[in-house]
Amino acid sequence: MKICAITKKSSIMGGGYSNRTRATKFNPTGRIRKHLNLQKKRIFVPEINKFLNIEVSVQGLRTMKKNGAYATLLKAGLIKA
Hints:
Layout: E1 12-14, H1 19-24, E2 32-34, E3 38-45, E4 50-57, H2 58-67, H3 69-76
Antiparallel strand pairs: 1-2, 3-4
Helix pairs in contact: 2-3
């Protein structure tokens, strides 16, 4: 299963009914799986002087940009202190 390394989020089931379907109870829409926007990234962490290959969602990348790569990866448990 595809899971973000930082946020630990995965895909969800979506879909539903249009208003016309609700009115007539005819021909319901199907369920659809909504996937995360996962990216494979090679990130350099200067504190440990290493590159890391991780599969992370764009939301996780924004978190890393805001809080810093080292702090975010440490909190996610991907690197040891």
